Every structure is written in structure tokens, then in C-alpha cells.
Amino acid sequence: MSNDRETVLSSLRRSLGRDGPVDEDTAAKLRARMVGHARNTVPARTALDDEGLVELFQTMAEKVHATVSHVPDMSDVPDAIGEYLRGENLPSEIVMAPDETLDAAPWADNALLEIRRGVPVESDQVSVTSAPAAVAETGTLAMFSGPAHPSTLNFIPETHVVVLPKGRVVKSYEDVWDAIRAQAADPESGRDGQLPRTVNFITGPSRSGDIEQTLLLGAHGPRRLHIVIVDGE
Amino acid sequence: MSEAPRVALFVTCLVDLFRPSVGFAAVKLMQDAGCTVEVPEAQTCCGQPAYNSGDRKDTIAIAKQVIAAFEGYDYVVAPSGSCAGMIMRHYPELLEKDPEWADRAQGLGSRTHELVSFLTDVLKIEHIDAAFDGTVTYHDSCSGLRELGIHDQPRKLLADVEGLHLRELPDANVCCGFGGTFCVKYPDISNRMVGNKADLIVETGAETLLAGDMGCLMNMAGKLQRDGANVRVRHVAEVLAGMTDTPAIGEAPDDGVTS
Amino acid sequence: MSVSTTRNFKANAAEQLANETLRAALTKSKGHFTDSRAIAAENLPEFEDLRDQSRDIKDHTIENLDFYLEAYEAKVKESGGHVHWARTGEDARNIVLEICKSVDAKAVNKGKSMISEECAINDMLEANGIRAVETDLGEYIIQLRGETPSHIIAPAVHLTKGQVEESFRENHTHLDPDRILEEPPTLLDEARTILRQKYFEAEVGMTGANLLVAETGSSIIVTNEGNGDLSQLIPKVHIVLASIEKIVPTLEDATTILRVLARSATGQEFSSYTTVSTGPKREGDPDGPEEYHVILLDNGRTDMIGTEFQEMLRCIRCGACMNHCPVYQSVGGHAYGWVYPGPMGSVLSPGLLGVDEAGHLPNASTFCGRCEEVCPVRIPLPKLMRNWREQEFEKHLSPGAARLGLGLWSFFARRPKLYQLVTGIQMRVLARAGRARGRLSSVPLAKGWTKYRELPAPEGRTFQSRWKSGERPQ
Predict the structure, then answer these.
(1) What total of structural domains would you count in chain B?
(2) Which end of chain B is less enclosed by CB atoms within 10 A, N or C?
(3) pLDDT digit string (tens) for C213-226?
(4) Same domain, yes or no, for B59 and B137?
């Protein structure tokens, strides 16, 4: 297989008018460009204060058929979710991400919710996760894979409920990249943090227009995406 | 400008061969606007047929011929967006590497204009005294629209024509299916495109169809007439110049045309 | 390479033009795509700047593609993934087969991938006793029908819901034949239920990649359904099949392009799922693939670089060009005879298949320019199509009669006096023939025109001859 590697690279270099790789000067410049990861234009609609960003996030999310509600505090979350499920006539069996944010809510206080924490199976109807970030620009949730965040929770059940502490709403995708780089950065070598295995940017429920361009929700991923914004956080 | 602008008319092959009255209408419009108009003899074609068929060599030969024939005027004006576009955009590209001709092509390109936009954008004409009774719809020819940005100009002048009522054509900016040799190389596809266009034209209920390019006009007229539709087709210059006594495109001389 | 019928474009097109069901389907979809894109572009004041930046990012990357490919490869390996290089479609097939055999795969779940079409992956899998399961709804539908995609992002755009219902009834024979299945929601539910089961059955998931990021060694897919995600998270192995020009330098560069991608394609701000995948699952991850393989495909692209067709490699596969193309909207995608239809297919296919094979495609255009107008990375598509026509002309590939006719025209056009003499006579002859009706219904040598149109008769003497004899406007 390394055979093809050399063939492809040498064909490429020939076409680019070179005998071999770029010279050291150019390589240094290209490396610097990569490491510098400069931002290109970020839409001006994101130039808002925190309140404005949350409003923008909600407006954009609702445009793509996510539903959004607010609670004052983490302690209100279990009841709010219970109410939502009842209102939609959905079962109260939930599979939930075993993450710290959700740990802080008093699930035991809501007797009706039956909760299993971990990876979803085919028969799970409702999942609950928290979101590490949300992008106001397009009403998008950013979800990261990790020990406490099975990514399949974002896709398998028909209904996905996301708990979003208000302070996690950021302006743009660029902010998400910067946060990841800073978060897992290695202070000694100065190296940026590595991306999680899977970063899912989720903008509304699953949809398809493949049958006569009729917009249908719930193609393979969730049919319903419900976002609970925790205002106190 | 204290002196009358000296304009050379680039007739275009289709106007020259099929509908000279468009040429005379163009001359009239420019003369009425205070230009002196000359018609260089050594002109035939802008070279698009060769160009779009991949015959670069012949295209360049024709381009040089056009450049040589049309140098020395204040402006060169063509009653066609595609021919004007050819001279303005493509001649400089074709000759950019030629040390002798690059500047000359640039020079000609910068002084060449499509007719209607010449009147509005260069001569700054706000209003033309013309009358034309009836409803009209307008098709935006592709080159004029996308290469030269011609859209508002004809509508602006038509708005002032006494008695004329303009109905916007849905999908006015969608190709009519002419495309030079395309319409005879791929007649079935061209027919679908011009058929769609003809249906939309008829649906507007307009009595007259106008546009700024003879190729499009002949294509649409030909289809409308084969379909038996009751729409007359003219070049927009004819209406603006008040020269609509002639039969419309594809119409017999005694088809009761009065305006 | 998958089989092409591009040589038969004219016959294919004629067949498709006669297809009334296709016409109905295309009429329904056309306005939707063009209107949505226009609205999305209007709602983003920075759209034109982002297009310029996307173009520049692509150009810069291609100019340094070898550097970025190697940087990308190093990062993929660092994250625990494997990189394979495939010179041709056949190489890609062999690599895919080897990976599948290594895990004794019985089925491969596929996210939508045009590269997999280009390399005829499904045929290879089936020939080796491995089930290829298309999970994208549109791809699933056409797989049932034994068809190929007719559009690069909306594979089933050529079908009506009636046809979809028919295919479901024919193939989902385990379900109650009396069930109601007319409306899109019931069709969707049925497909969802059937595919939901299959997500858990495959050992391998294969996706394409809209973008590859050199900075982090990541692959990015953009879907609305979530099928690409289910395909890569559940099976043991995730294979990414991507052509080499999908690379961009950084996450920021990827983000810029993502901002113009969905807007140009469907008019959405962002699609429902934009997923960035980096390597196999990490230690402690409760789900995700255990193995991550990226297959980098050349298949003629390195040969396009350094030529006048290099700009074509900017393409981000949004489909805007074909949504706005009046030729595509008349004949549909299948007429083009190969994987890539519409304007982008008309430029790319001759590059990958050769201009003698695919020469019809760049000829079947009026150069109306709508494609270039909407291309998010500003590929000068008409110019590139004309470049292919030049190649054909130089290789004498254009049909003899056309070449002769044009040669004659150019001969006369270069000799004004002769031209004026000959055309003066000809026009008067035609004018006389058409005087009574003002037009001609049949003209020798002009059958292409008169098959469907009247030919307006010339007015008589040419303008130049009238002008020369002193005639002036009143």
C-alpha cells in the first residue's frame, strides 16, 4: 500500500512543478499557518452580549424545529423534563449520559422518571444529555464524545433532550475550536488539545427532503430535539 | 463632452443578415442622443461561434480583425449583450499574452458597450421619447445579464415609453436555450428550454416580447410561432427608437402590424 | 471506475426528455433549491466574502497539496487511525475489500459517498458476498430500484413519491400489502424502521468526507438524516473514502467552507448534523469505532493539477450548479451517464474519464453562466467547459459536419468583402423564400433549428449593403 503513496505524491509533485516536497522555508510558513489557525470572517450577527447570544441561539434553534424551554436552576431540570415528556405523550424511561453536569440535578426527586445511565440500545425512546457548548450563530449544539458522553445518545432514540447551562452558549464555531484547544492543551509542550473522537454539531432534529423535497423530521436520528436552557448557570 | 461622441456601430452578424432594422434603430437612438455614428466596413462577426466551438486560432484572427477595424473611435456599440460581452470580456483574455495586441484588446474592450446600457450608463439618458401601445414582457439574455450586469437599464427606459405596460416574465433570467450552436447541436434539449420559456411568455398575456439579443429573439420567436402563439417579438431597440412599423420578427409583411 | 455511458449523452438525453415522470419530479424540486439558496444568501451579509475566502482556501491548499496530505496523514496516525493511498478506483476497491475481510464483514453500512460511486464500491462488495447497505434515504430508495444517483446531494430527486411507494411495496414484502403507504411521512417511517435494524448488523461503516482537516487529522461529514453518524458510531470499523482534494489546512478553514456549503446546497444555514471525526474511539469512550481507516483517492486528480482544469478541484460538492442549470433541469442527472452530473460533472468527468469518452458533456451547455454565478468557490465552469471544447477541437474530436460548417463560417468571417458578397446573395434568397409568411418552416441544412422552430426570414438586403448605399434612419 505504501507503493501507491509514493506514486500519488510524486505524480502530485510533478504536476505542481516540483521534484520533491516544498522547500524548508515554505514548509515552515505552511506549518505556521496551520498552527496559527487564523480565523476567517465570522458573521457579524454573533456580535451580541451574552443575553443577546442566548436569544439568537433560541431563535435559530426554533427555526430548525428544535423546541426550547428555560428553567431557572439545575434543580428544576428533572421536573421540566418530566413535564415535557408527558406533554408529548412520550414514555418516561430515559437513557442518560453519565456526565457531571447532569449529576448535579436531583433526578431521584422525580418519581416518574426511570433513568438508566450509559449507552443507548435500539429500544430506547428518549435520551438526555448535556451539551458542553452551543453555537448561537446557527442555533447549534456542540456535543463531544468522551467517557461520560456516548455519542450514540445523540442519534439512536427518537427523542433527544439536551440540558444546556446558559453560560455555555458561545458566538461561533471558532469559539468552540478555541475552547477545545485550550481545554486539553499541554502546558509543557504548548501543544493544542486534541479533539475528542467525535464532535457532533447538531442543528435541529434529523430530517430528509429526499421524497419530493417534502421536509420530514426523524429520518434516522431523533425526530424531536428538545433543549432545556438552565438560566441560572 | 463638448464634441459629439464618435461611435462605431458593431452591427453583429444576426442583425446584419436577418434584421437590419435593429441596426437602423440603434443608429437612430444614438444619433438622437447626440452621437455621430459610423459603420466600419470590415466587420463580419465577433467570433463567438469559433470561440465557443473551441477554435481558438480562428477566434483570435477574427478578434484582431475587429480590433483593427474599430480602433480610433470614442465608443463601440453593439445591439447585443453577447457580442459586446465577447469584445469587452473575452478579447482581452484571449490576447492577454500577446505583446502587440494585449493593450489594443484592453483598449477596445474598455470602449465597447451594449446598446441600452450605453444609453443609460454612458450617455446618462434618463428618458426616451417613445410611444408603444400594449403589454410587453422582457427576457434577460444571459451574457448581457451575467457578463455585463444589464438588467435595470432596459426596464428603466421601457418604463417611460408612453402607452407601454411591462409585465415581468417569471424566470426572466433563465436561459432561452439558444446558446449559439447549442440549439442546433442539441435541438431536443434546446426545445425543452425554449418550450418552457414560450409557455411562460404566453402565460404573462403580453402581446409583445422584447429582449436585447437577436439570437435569443429568433429562438423564442421561432418557437412561439411554431406553437401558434399570438405574441410579437422585437428587439428592444425597435421600441425605444419608435421604429415598430416593420413586421415583427418572423412576421409576414401584411400581418396587420401597426405598432 | 464505474461504467460510464457519457458517449450516449444525446440518446440518454432524448430518452429522459420524453420521461414525463422525471419532468414532474424536476419541476417540483427546481424552485425549491434555487429559492432556498437565494434566501439563505440574502440572510448572510458576509456570504460573498465567505465565497472569496473559501475559493482562496481551496486554491492555497491545492498549490501545497502534498504538504497538507502528509501533515494530515501524520495527524491521523497520531490519533490511532490508518491512512491508505489509492491511485485508482481499483486500488480503492482492493483496500476496502482487504479491510472488510480483516474483520470478516458480512455487511457494510454506507453513508452517502460519491467517491464510492466513482469507484464502484458496492458492486465489488456484492461480488464478494458482502452486503452494501445504503442508509441515506435517497440512496436507499435508488438501491432498491437498481438505479444510480441522479444528483450529488439529492440522489432520488428524479423520483416521484408514487415511484418510491412502488419500490417499497415491491421490496418490503414482509409487510402487510394492504397498508397505507402513499404519503411521504409513512414512507419515511417505513424506511426508518427497516434501516434502524440494519444499523446494528454491520461490522463496517463507510462514509465519504466533505472535508479532511490537516491540522487535526479529522474527517468531516455533513448530513441531515444522521445516517452517516449511525453508520460510523455503531460498527467496529469506520472507513472514510475521500479524494485527495478534500483537504483543508485548519478547523477554521473548514468552518468557512461549511458556512457556504449547506447554504449553497439546500439553503440551510447548516445541515442537521455536521460531524468531525478524529481517529478510532479513545480509551474510555463508551461507543465509537475501534478502527478508523482513511482511503485517500487520486483517480486522475493529480493529473488535473498543473493544468488549466486545476480550478475544478475547488469543488465542495454542494450541487448548486446543477440546481440552477437549465440543461440539468431539462434532462435530469442520469442523462449525463456517469457519477457526476450537471455543470460540475461536465467539467470533472472529462478530467477523470478523458475528453474522448466524456466530450459531449461540456458541449451540452449554452454557457448561460448561472452555474458560475452560484458556485460557492467561484469555479469558472463555462470557461472550463470551453477549455474542454478547445481540447476536442485540437484533437479533431468534434463531429465532421459541425467542424466543416464552423470552418466555413470562420473562413468567410475573416474575409469581410467576400462575406458581404456571399451573405448579401444568400439573405436575399432566404428573404424571398420566406416573404409570404415572414418565416420558413423548413430550410436545407437547418434541420436542427426547424425541427422545433420556425426560422424568421431575413428582411432582405443586409444592413451593411443598405448602409453602404446611403440608407439612414429617419
Answers:
(1) 2
(2) N
(3) 999 999 999 999 99
(4) no
Which CATH number is B105's domain given? 3.40.50
Last residue of a domain, one of B104, B121, B138: B121
Closest Cα in chain A to C287: A150
Distance CA A167, CA B117 (A): 55
C395 in contact with B at a CB cutoff of 8 Å?
Answer: no
Interface of C with A in 13-52 (CB under 8 A): 25, 28-29, 32, 44-46, 49-50
CB–CB contact A12 C302 (8 Å): yes
Residue C22: helix, strand or coil by DSSP? helix
Residue ranges in chain B whose pLDDT is less than 70: 1-2, 254-259
Q: Residue A2 has what pLDDT? A: 52
Q: Kindly tell me if the per-residue pLDDT of A213 is higher than 90.
A: no
- Residues B15 and B112 grouped into a single domain: yes
The ipTM assigned to this model is 0.96
* Residue A169 scores a pLDDT above 80: yes
Test C284 with A26 for CB contact under 8 angstroms: no
The ranges of chain C with pLDDT < 70 are none
Tell me which DSSP letter residue C312 carries: G
**Average pLDDT of the residues of chain A:** 94
Predicted TM-score (pTM) of the model is 0.96
Residue B1 lies inside a defined structural domain of this protein? no
Min Cα separation C272/chain A (Å): 4
Of A203, A209, A212, the CB nearest to C161: A212
Q: B31 and B109: one domain?
A: yes
CATH assignment, A50-230:
3.40.50.10420
Domain shared by B138 and B171, yes or no = yes
CB contact under 8 A, A27 and C25: no
- The verdict on B65 and B140 lying in the same domain is no
Q: What DSSP string describes A59-106? A: HHHHHTT-EEEEESSGGGHHHHHHHHHHHTT--SEEEE---HHHHTS-
Q: Using the beta-carbon criterion (under 8 Å), do C435 and B184 form an inter-chain contact?
A: no
Query: In this structure, are B45 and B99 located in the same domain?
Result: yes
> Number of residue pairs across B and C with CB atoms under 8 Å?
220
Contact C225 A207 (CB under 8 A): yes
Task: Kindly state whether residues B173 and B217 are assigned to the same domain.
Answer: yes
pLDDT band of residue A164 (cuts 50, 70, 90) is very high
CA of A187 vs chain C CAs: smallest distance (Å): 18
> Which of C161, C273, C302 is closest, CB to CB, to A202?
C273
| Res C217: pLDDT | 98
Which residues between 172 and 211 in chain C have a beta carbon less than 8 angstroms from any beta carbon of chain B? none
- Does chain B touch chain C (at least 3 C-beta pairs within 8 Å)? yes
| CB contact (8 A) between residue C462 and residue B16 | yes
Read off the pLDDT of each residue in A150-162 and give the average, rounded to a whole number.
97
Query: What's C6-302's CATH class?
Result: alpha beta
Range of the domain at B65: 6-121
Query: Which chain C positions have a beta carbon within 8 Å of B182's beta carbon?
Result: 363-366
CB B38 within 8 A of CB B68: no
Q: Identify whether residues B113 and B138 lie together within a single domain.
A: no
Q: Over the stretch C213-269, which tens digit does the pLDDT of each residue have?
A: 999 999 999 999 999 999 999 999 999 999 999 999 999 999 999 999 999 999 999
Q: What is the CATH number for B203? A: 3.40.50.1860
Whether residue B89 lies within 8 A of chain C, CB to CB, comes out as: no
